[in-house]
Amino acid sequence: MRRPLIGLTAYAQHVQYGSNEQVVGMLPMSYVRAVHATGGRAVLITPDDPGTDVLESLDGIVFAGGGDVDPANWGAEPHPATDSDPVRDASELLLMRAALDADLPVLGVCRGLQVMAVATGGSLHQHLPDLVGHDRHRAAAGTDPLAVDSSAFGRHDVVLTPGSAARSLLGARLTVNSFHHQAIDDPGSFTVVGRCPDDRVVEIIEDRNRSFALGVQWHPERTGDLRVFAALVEAAADSSGLGRTALAA
Amino acid sequence: MVKMRPVIGITTYVEPATWGVWHNLPTTLVPHDYVAAVTGAGGRAVLLPPDDLDTDVLRILDGLVLSGGSDLGPELYGAPAAPQTVTRPERDAAEMLLARAALTRDLPVLGVCRGMQLLTVAGGGTLHQHLPDVLGHDRHRPAPGVYGEHEAGFTPGSRIAGLMGEDTRVHCFHHQGVDDPGTLTVTGRAEDGTVEAVEDPRHRFVLGVQWHPEVTRDKRLFGALVEAAA
């Protein structure tokens, strides 16, 4: 068997686990499980000294969630609430541009969507509450805003643009979870194809001129709805000549 | 055309981890020292989450690091579990599959601590489950988070002897150790007799060390792996 190999951008983070406390290369398992559940094989790509050669080995790539993107990348001063990691930014912006140049299938999740915009000349709102007057796009860490018994905080709808690839994949409307305080202002070379109907926050972007380039502001890997991961893995299988049979297992 | 560095896979483990606003989130992780050691030696590290479905990821790897971690399940070498043994069966299953397939492909492999023990068990060997019971001292794991530091002696003419040269000090942190090396050759020991290095001369590059060369980002060992992988 040969599954499409999907790179996941990971990060170097000081974490505590068991009796250990140290800097580790890491990523929440939810991303790994989402890739494996949809027929791909996940490997983690850590921030590295500038080098994009690893892309040659991959069939697709997921830019994962994480901290804020440094506003210096679109020429803005940092907001007091902005907390960024310049090493990760530099590495991911480089990887993103190289992945798009190579037309590697790309899925951006939360921060990953924001990196898609910034890497192609776009910009972000640094702190959504300043823009929309509320913080309902940022659910409390560790909560599941989609759970039956949870409050509506951090849960909202997304309305998709008719005729978009995203709409063919996800339908006209869906309900999503939300864990962010930055959001897209200018989507760069991408097209905005879905927004939160309550406050017009950008929720999903795509570029139909590429084999597969989709970014979502929410966290599908933390839900049972893995359609965007399935679409990425399928695109990765197609573009690497594996065909759908590779996903039959 | 970008210059391709050898791609070195590093096995990872899954633990509930806490950072920032997140508490006990199941996370796939490995100490960043391993990544830095591979990068510093000229390789491109990718981290491999445990997955026991298949070994197809080996297709893109030029070399493999079996990283440290929990004790191997003693059932893998036919022993009942000792009271001090702490295992991660899912990781065992995934790594054993990966290690065996890597050996079949003659992929260069560096086993570190648990990784060396895994190479040993994959080669039909066995482990001591709690060294203090065998040695009567705790110098290979002096205290939580503290590495034991000691000299190791290496077999003249072995790969590890050539790589280590004059400086034979090692940093270790383990409570299990190799008993029967199986099909591997023991090429290094501590003064108390504990196995510190194993090799498999039948392969291009199969080296296991009981200590932690990633902590000092030891280019002697990681450089040799990357060179073998190139």
UniProtKB/TrEMBL annotation, chain A:
One of the protein's GO biological processes: polyamine catabolic process
* Gene Ontology terms: cellular component: cytosol
Can you say what this protein is called?
Glutamine amidotransferase
Q: Which UniProt keywords are present, listed alphabetically?
A: Glutamine amidotransferase
Does this UniProt record's set of keywords contain Repressor? no
| A GO term, aspect molecular function | gamma-glutamyl-gamma-aminobutyrate hydrolase activity
The reply to whether Nuclease figures as a keyword in the UniProt entry is no
From TrEMBL, chain B:
Q: Name one GO cellular component term.
A: cytosol
Q: Name one GO biological process term.
A: polyamine catabolic process
Keywords, A to Z, come to: Hydrolase
Question: What is one Pfam family matched by this protein?
Answer: Peptidase_C26
Recorded hits in InterPro entries, A to Z, give:
Class_I_gatase-like (IPR029062), Peptidase_C26 (IPR011697), PuuD-like (IPR044668)
Recorded GO MF terms = gamma-glutamyl-gamma-aminobutyrate hydrolase activity
Q: What is this protein called?
A: Gamma-glutamyl-gamma-aminobutyrate hydrolase
The species this protein was found in: Actinoplanes auranticolor
